[in-house]
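Q: Got a minute? One more chain.
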Amino acid sequence: MKRSVIDRLKEKSSLLFIAPHLIIFSIFFIIPFFYGIVISLFNWHMFFPEMREFIGFDNYQKILFDTEHIYHEYFFNGLGNTFTFVLISVPLLVAFPLLFALLINIEPPGYKVFRGIFYLPSLLSISTLVLIWRWVLNTNVGILNLTLSEVGLDRIPWLAEQPFAWASLVTMTVWWTIGGNMVIFTASLKEIPQSLYEAAEVDGANIFQKFFNITIPGMKNQLLYITIMTTLASFNVFGQPQLATGGGPSESTKVLMMYIREIAFGGGRPNPGIATAMAVLLGIIMIAISLFQSRIIRRLG
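A: Always. Here it is, folded:
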């Protein structure tokens, strides 16, 4: 009986440890999530509650099916640009950290220094990141274009023309976030028993066979986590295009989150109902893609 009381106290103490996170998670995610769904069903006036009108799924109908409505154009243009960023960035944000983690796992001379150098950019804020890269990529006085001029090459409008604008946004994103994923991959590689590699060598397996039959299955859970979290983060991209290109050129890098912010809080007449409906649709797409990724990666081993 005494032992069961102690066990109950241990269970309650564990709840105390997770309580702060649970409270913060509820306040800043669960409650806003359901509140956002409610707002999307209304013609919502932010400052005049008496003028709010329940309209059901009319906001969704305008966004998805009313081809002559400006919100339909905004949504699909923003979603297309967002998908472009996701399709380019996510493979790089998974492949490069994995490659560097494999190299660091060999523990070459100075590997700890390089690990720190790769991780350092992830400590920067988004505004600092963009300021650094705007200085590097400036068409007239950027260090990269000045270097190109010195070797006799033409200057490139990195942030003002396509496809350079997308290349610039993806490059700064990879440089910024590569360290965090690399650390997770490095830790997961340490957990794979070396005996498996030794047994594979005895059987005559080459480096690629060991990678696909031992390494990938051995870090499947970490690979799943990084792929899904990286995809979700890429779908929520905002700071890089907002601060670096302003959505240009010709709104070709104006992602959906930029449209959502503009519609919800922009000049003229804000429309939080439409903005939250767009956010809900984006959330549904993200959930569907995450489930698809989870199913694919879990089949790896």
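A: DSSP finds 13 helices and two strands in the chain.
Q: Perfect, thanks.
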